[in-house]
Design goal:
The protein is mostly beta strands. The protein has a single domain, classed as SOS response associated peptidase-like (hypothetical protein yedk fold, Alpha-Beta Complex). 10% of the residues lie in helices and 33% in strands. The chain contains four helices and 13 strands. Strands 3, 4, 5, 6, 9, 10, 11 and 12 form an eight-stranded mixed β-sheet that branches. It has a five-stranded antiparallel β-sheet with strand order 2-1-7-8-13, with no helix packed on it. It starts with a strand and ends in a 15-residue tail after the last strand.
Length: 212
């Protein structure tokens, strides 16, 4: 499970795939976020109609059939094992995969991060909900998988991590064999080069970034 994460990477050290695709005003207002939670707006890299862009989406997938965006379930995680068959996630897996940058994620007051402190990609899916009044809400969720040796003592799930160099393949609108070829990326990732910081108490409330 992934229900809390952080993005505290310096602007200049954010993944290169983001650069040139930032939302308007992002570089001027960017601040480090020590605690990001479901329902918060999150930075996401996606491809739509062949165009790559980064935008803010609400964390918690809002399905097409929802009549009221304030009511009903909004899952913030999707299981890798059932993402291609479960109706809530199948369309996102087939056509709307995304990448969510993070510097670490939390499990039971522990921060899991790369030893070199570099940002990394969590694999996700996204959706665009359209209201009867013409309103639009973009939302996303994080894909989770079985834990590796590093995480299994903390939780029975962990986020899917997409290695650098796979950005184009992950967010491209593909199907058939090319879509099937992405499934191995959702397996347990190696714990080599990763670390756990214990008894970590992330910032809360007013200490978080107030996104524009």
């Amino acid at each position: 499970m992934c229900s809390r994460y952080a993005l505290t990477t310096d602007l200049a050290r954010l993944p290169s795939a983001l650069k040139g695709n930032f939302p308007q005003g992002f570089t001027e207002h960017y601040e480090k976020q020590h605690l990001i939670r479901p329902s918060d707006p999150v930075l996401v890299l996606k491809e739509e109609n062949g165009i790559r862009s980064a935008s803010f989406m609400l964390w918690g997938l809002l399905p097409d059939w929802s009549k009221d965006p304030l009511k009903g379930p909004r899952p913030f995680n999707a299981r890798a094992e059932t993402i291609s068959t479960k109706p809530s996630f199948r369309g996102g897996w087939q056509h709307r995969r995304c990448l969510i940058p993070a510097s670490g994620f939390y499990e039971k007051n522990h921060l899991i991060r790369r030893e070199d402190a570099k940002a990394f990609w969590m694999g996700g899916i996204w959706n665009k909900w359209l209201g009867a009044d013409g309103s639009e809400i973009q939302s996303c969720c994080v894909i989770t998988t079985k834990p590796n040796d590093l995480l299994k003592t903390l939780h029975n799930r962990m986020p899917v991590i997409i290695p650098e160099g796979n950005e184009d393949a992950w967010i491209a609108n593909v199907n058939g064999h090319d879509l099937k070829a992405l499934e191995p990326l959702m397996g347990s990732w190696s714990s080599k080069g990763w670390a756990i910081e214990g008894s970590y108490k992330p910032m809360t409330g007013i200490q978080q970034m107030n996104l524009f």
